[in-house]
């Protein structure tokens, strides 16, 4: 068949493939025919495609033909002879002349230019040098030809900064070198195109020749797009030398082209200064500064003169502000030497910060935050390293910059920050005048940033300003609070509209904490400044104390203001007494008993005031010690009068413990005795234990006794607080764990454990029993409902955010809350019981964990049987979220701090039932998730139908959470401090060269290594090792990263001991599982560690067990010669790094590159003087085990 006939057939096939009315069979046949043409004879493909790009055919067919030509160039170019390639290139350039027609579509022009660029990339610089004269000639022929030339220039460097797997290695370097050498030709050409066609477009537009003006305009846009392709990597001095910076700066004055030009400055502004850069770079970057600052000056002038700007003006200003922020964040040193220019720049950024438009303000906020963070850290470092002459010049620059952040600048930043700490939706019309014309933050402003994140950035900036100018910050925040309070008193807004006054307590808290931060910074201020600060805050404090607010919401706010001044009280203790008296005054001004939910704000306010005592006790430290007796007397009086609820007593007691912690152990012991003695009398009574803790039925009766139920709750939570606050310091287990000297016998809580823990263990045991089937079936409906997951917990699992609850709510250990003010109601409902059960469980676990940190005082005095019985008796019936909390709060500390000589008595019986159950549960759930997409966890039984998708999400979250917690426990078993008796890998490697008779028995490590102890207990070791093996197949990289440390020590013990069974497990099961784990893309982040484990097994154990070699030889793409070559390569190097690389290469080769965790990551190529552009890409999902990508391991399993 002749070429025209083939072309006609191809055209019909393209039409059929693109016609949605064609039958599926017809489209499939068309696709098959087109693929056969693309894979067939290259000459037929080329000739046919060149025929089909002619104007005789439809646009769709022509576009497809261009793509066929590009396919030939990309994938089959080497199949053409040099002469044919040159002829092909000339034909492609000729196409540019043919397609330069006003009636041609832009897409066809773009594809033509892309084809020419593709050819140049394949052929290299030599072809480009030959084509360049004709390219110049073509660009001079008219605006359409110029547009095509600009398109080619734009496509040429695309592969330098954007990865293209068709351009790798030498060819990429040759292209980069060629384009770099051609920049003196390319950049002037682009400038000429910009200048010529911008002028022509303006002239033709003035003549009303709009069609021709649009053609010139299109050429300008194409030239700017081409310039942007070089802006990321071309040397900045070249961009300045050939007029590109000036040209794009000029286009910023044109409404038609300025958005395109903005892209150039957006790309250039974050370009980092090369280490070897000359002054030319600084000069060029300074030009960028000047261009953008001049445009900004015009924007502010227009805004002030016209009284406003259009939306397009604001959009343009946002682009300019974004570039200025990038400049200031990366290249401020280029203008740092000129204080006039730098000051002008800072004034402009301040103008953006103060601007009413939120988008402009927010961009500038990021700059000021970055600047102040850098300057404040540098200024402190400069003081510390004042004698270091090497950094003297940089420090001087920083000090000069900091000097330009004047009092006036700081005042302006603070004024704006205070105003913007409000959310638009929460502003009451009555305070609108105070806000002015500011566009406040709204929920719809930025989907990636919420208001709390924005406000935290404002507060961080306020802290930096307070550190830099403490007197200015103190005066401003005091002035603003005074103003807000006065306006509030005048307007008399409803108490629900307290957004303005509530927001300022955060500002006060951050200013005060920054100035009186407990370090030496405050002491470095002059006496005059300290006196002024004292006067400002003392005046503010007197004003706050004089307020006679009794409305609960206002009392709550006032409590926040008073505790915000806590750090100030540390340095000025004379004011402490007045604050304490005011807090007690506020507390007693609120009603004590409230049964109507509508008045619960009084309860929350009372709890907040009690919480303020804790915050002040923490912040003021020793300043409260002289007032402890007075506080104790007042507490005793209020308790005697019966006007303190248990929750309030707990908070005040906790505050007392905080105060006592700074007074020494003896004071703590006295305080604890005073606080705990009344509780112990009730807690240790046998009557209530016999009535309520004998079995689960009696526990149900306890949940019906509201008053006693909450009394038990508050007793337990206070025990937890007492352990945390009374000298408890988190320690880390180490080799001293095996010594009897590690327990802090002086800890003030030690003497209380003996009476505190036994009833608690009974309570926990009874709660755990509720979930056993025999008990659960007999429970009444409300109790069963209380055992189900709450809506708040479900929302948390779904990532739907936390439900906002009262500020007096109790926070659980997972961060969720519930309102404890409901304790006063007569009848507990389902939610009350659920919260009570959860609170007792979490606090109980925490108490056991905190007690374990006391070491010998706990482990040698407590009966392990009672603890094991309480925690493990019903472990098989516990839900995943409960096991997670148990492990995290109780079991991890118990393992960490148990003395080694007590491991037998405590840990074997404690850990065996846990790991046995968890192994079975996790195996079942993961198997279900990977095969069916549903985890099937016990926590969500009973959830209403119709929520299938949400249930699946919640189940997977619960499964992953428990998996990670269990793997964390495995990593604790492998902690260095618990395995001090193990040799290093190098020492073990030397031992491995001996025969088994010369090696130590596994039992020899059981007393000095936790992992040795575990492996020596076979019943305990089996489920733990099974979890490790199966974790390699679970698509959870976080869990996998935690279990690798345990696997490493298991391998180490296999190398160090004569235990044949352990060695066989490591060499066969573990080695195979690791390779299988490398098939999962989710394990890419820890692939280096996994390869390292493979290397250790092969290097140290393959001479003692044949399994590693057998497993490698079972892989699909390896031969015996490959393995021998690998072993020879290993023998030639003693470098672990090189051996790991050899192992990695072998695994990739042996599996046919099927190990997704080791797949080459196609990253952006890093080239000198190139700034990477951010490009979003969707991460590939984790691979399922059922995808059929087996790599040959099936033969050995």
Automatic annotation (TrEMBL):
One of its GO terms (biological process) is RNA export from nucleus. Residues 106-264 form the Exportin-1/Importin-beta-like domain. It comes from the Eukaryota. Signal peptide: none annotated. Gene3D superfamilies: Leucine-rich Repeat Variant. Residues 732-744 have a biased composition (Low complexity). Residues 312-1162 form the Exportin-5 C-terminal domain. InterPro entries: ARM-like, ARM-type_fold, Exportin-1/Importin-b-like, Exportin-5_C, XPO1/5. Residues 727-746 are annotated as: Disordered. Pfam families: Exportin-5, Xpo1. GO terms for cellular component: cytoplasm; nucleus; RNA nuclear export complex. GO terms for molecular function: nuclear export signal receptor activity; RNA binding. This is Protein HASTY 1. It comes from Sesamum indicum. The gene is LOC105162443.
């Amino acid at each position: 068949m002749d070429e025209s006939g083939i072309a006609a057939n191809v055209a019909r096939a393209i039409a059929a493939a693109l016609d949605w009315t064609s039958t599926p069979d017809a489209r499939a046949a068309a696709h098959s025919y087109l693929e056969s043409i693309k894979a067939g004879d290259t000459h037929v493909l080329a000739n046919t495609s060149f025929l089909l790009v002619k104007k005789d055919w439809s646009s769709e067919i022509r576009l497809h033909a261009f793509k066929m030509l590009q396919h030939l160039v990309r994938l089959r170019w080497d199949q053409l002879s040099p002469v044919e390639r040159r002829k092909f290139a000339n034909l492609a350039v000729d196409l540019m002349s043919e397609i330069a027609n006003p009636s041609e579509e832009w897409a066809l022009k773009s594809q033509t230019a892309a084809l020419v660029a593709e050819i140049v990339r394949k052929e290299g610089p030599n072809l480009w040098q030959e084509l360049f004269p004709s390219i110049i000639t073509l660009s001079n022929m008219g605006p359409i030809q110029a547009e095509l030339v600009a398109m080619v220039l734009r496509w040429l460097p695309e592969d330098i900064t954007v990865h293209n797997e068709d351009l790798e290695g030498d060819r990429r370097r040759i292209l980069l070198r060629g384009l770099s050498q051609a920049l003196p030709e390319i950049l002037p050409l682009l400038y000429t195109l910009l200048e010529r066609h911008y002028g022509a477009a303006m002239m033709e537009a003035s003549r009303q020749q709009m069609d021709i003006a649009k053609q010139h305009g299109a050429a300008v846009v194409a030239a700017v797009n081409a310039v942007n392709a070089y802006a990321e990597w071309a040397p900045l001095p070249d961009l300045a030398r050939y007029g590109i910076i000036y040209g794009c700066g000029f286009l910023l004055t044109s409404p038609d082209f300025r958005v395109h030009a903005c892209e150039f400055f957006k790309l250039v502004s974050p370009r980092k200064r090369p280490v070897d850069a000359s002054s030319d770079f600084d000069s060029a970057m300074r030009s960028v500064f000047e261009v953008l600052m001049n445009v900004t000056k015009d924007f502010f002038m227009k805004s002030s003169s016209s009284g406003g700007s259009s939306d397009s003006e604001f959009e343009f200003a946002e682009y300019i502000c974004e570039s200025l922020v990038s400049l200031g964040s990366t290249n401020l040193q280029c203008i740092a030497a000129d204080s006039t220019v730098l000051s002008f720049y800072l004034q402009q950024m301040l103008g953006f910060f103060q601007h009413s438009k939120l988008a402009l303000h927010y961009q500038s906020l990021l700059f000021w935050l970055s600047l102040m963070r850098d300057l404040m850290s540098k200024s402190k470092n400069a003081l510390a390293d004042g004698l270091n002459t090497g950094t003297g010049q940089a420090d001087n620059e920083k000090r000069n910059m900091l000097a330009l952040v004047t009092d006036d600048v700081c005042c302006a930043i603070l004024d704006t920050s205070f105003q913007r700490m409000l959310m638009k939706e929460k502003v009451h019309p009555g305070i609108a005048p105070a806000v002015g014309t500011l566009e406040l933050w709204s929920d719809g402003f930025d989907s990636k940033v919420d208001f709390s994140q924005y406000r935290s950035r404002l507060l961080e900036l306020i802290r930096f300003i307070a550190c830099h100018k403490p007197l200015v910050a103190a005066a401003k925040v005091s002035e603003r609070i005074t103003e807000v309070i006065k306006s509030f008193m005048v307007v008399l807004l409803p108490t629900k509209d307290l957004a303005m006054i509530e927001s300022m307590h955060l500002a006060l808290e951050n200013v005060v904490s920054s100035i009186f931060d407990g370090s030496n910074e405050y002491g470095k201020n002059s006496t005059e400044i300290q006196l002024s600060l004292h006067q400002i805050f003392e005046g503010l404090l007197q004003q706050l104390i004089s307020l006679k607010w009794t409305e609960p919401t206002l009392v709550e706010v006032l409590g926040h203001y008073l505790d915000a001044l806590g750090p100030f009280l540390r340095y000025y203790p004379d004011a402490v007494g007045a604050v304490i008296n005011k807090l007690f005054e506020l507390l007693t001004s609120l009603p004590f008993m409230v049964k109507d939910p509508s008045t619960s704000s009084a309860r929350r306010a009372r709890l907040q005031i009690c919480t303020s005592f804790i915050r002040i006790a923490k912040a003021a430290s020793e300043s409260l010690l002289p007032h402890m007796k007075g506080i104790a007397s007042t507490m005793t009086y209020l308790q005697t009068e019966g006007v303190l609820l248990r929750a309030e007593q707990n908070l005040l007691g906790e505050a007392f413990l905080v105060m006592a912690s700074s007074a020494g152990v003896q004071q703590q012991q006295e305080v604890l005795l005073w606080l705990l003695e009344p509780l112990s009398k009730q807690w240790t009574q046998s009557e209530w234990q016999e009535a309520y803790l004998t079995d689960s039925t009696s526990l149900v009766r306890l949940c019906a006794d509201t008053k006693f139920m909450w009394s038990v709750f508050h007793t337990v939570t206070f025990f937890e607080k007492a352990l945390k606050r009374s000298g408890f310091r988190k320690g880390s287990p180490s080799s001293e764990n095996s010594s009897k000297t590690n327990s802090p016998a002086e800890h003030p809580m030690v003497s209380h454990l003996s009476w505190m823990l036994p009833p608690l263990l009974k309570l926990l045991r009874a709660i755990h029993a509720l979930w056993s089937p025999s008990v659960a079936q007999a429970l009444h409906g409300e109790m069963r409902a209380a055992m189900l997951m709450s809506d708040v917990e479900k929302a948390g699992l779904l990532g739907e955010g936390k439900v906002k609850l009262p500020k007096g709510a109790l926070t659980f250990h997972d961060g969720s809350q519930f309102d404890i003010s409901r304790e006063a109601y007569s009848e507990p409902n389902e939610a009350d019981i659920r919260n009570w059960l959860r609170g007792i469980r979490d606090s109980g676990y925490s108490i056991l964990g905190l007690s374990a940190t006391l070491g010998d005082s706990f482990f040698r005095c407590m009966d392990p049987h009672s603890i094991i019985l309480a925690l493990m008796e019903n472990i098989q019936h516990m839900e995943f979220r409960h096991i997670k909390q148990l492990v995290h709060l109780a079991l991890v500390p118990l393992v960490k701090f148990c003395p080694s000589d007590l491991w037998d008595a405590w840990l074997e019986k404690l850990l065996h039932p846990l790991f046995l159950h968890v192994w079975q549960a996790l195996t079942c759930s993961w198997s279900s998730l990977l095969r069916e997409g549903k985890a099937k966890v016990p926590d969500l039984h009973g959830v209403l139908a119709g929520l299938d998708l949400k249930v699946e999400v919640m189940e997977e979250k619960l499964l992953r959470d428990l998996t990670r917690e269990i793997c964390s426990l495995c990593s604790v078993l492998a902690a260095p401090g618990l395995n001090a008796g193990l040799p290093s890998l190098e020492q073990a490697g030397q031992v491995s060269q001996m025969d088994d008779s010369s090696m130590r028995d596994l039992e020899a490590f059981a007393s000095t290594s936790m992992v040795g102890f575990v492996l020596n207990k076979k019943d305990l070791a089996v489920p733990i090792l099974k979890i490790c093996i199966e974790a390699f197949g679970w698509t959870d990289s976080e869990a996998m990263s935690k279990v690798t440390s345990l696997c490493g020590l298991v391998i180490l013990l296999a190398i160090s001991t004569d235990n044949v069974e352990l060695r066989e497990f490591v060499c066969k099961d573990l080695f195979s599982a690791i390779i299988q784990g490398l098939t999962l893309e989710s394990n890419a982040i820890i692939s280096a560690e996994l390869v390292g484990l493979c290397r250790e097994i092969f290097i140290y154990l393959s001479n003692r067990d044949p399994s590693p070699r057998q497993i490698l030889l079972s892989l699909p793409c390896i031969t015996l010669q490959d393995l021998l070559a690998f072993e020879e390569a290993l023998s030639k190097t003693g470098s672990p790094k090189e051996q790991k690389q050899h192992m990695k290469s072998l695994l990739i080769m042996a599996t046919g590159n099927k190990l997704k965790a080791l797949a080459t990551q196609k990253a952006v190529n890093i080239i000198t003087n190139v700034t990477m552009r951010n490009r979003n890409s969707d991460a590939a999902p984790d691979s399922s085990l059922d995808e059929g990508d087996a790599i040959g391991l099936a033969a050995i399993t």
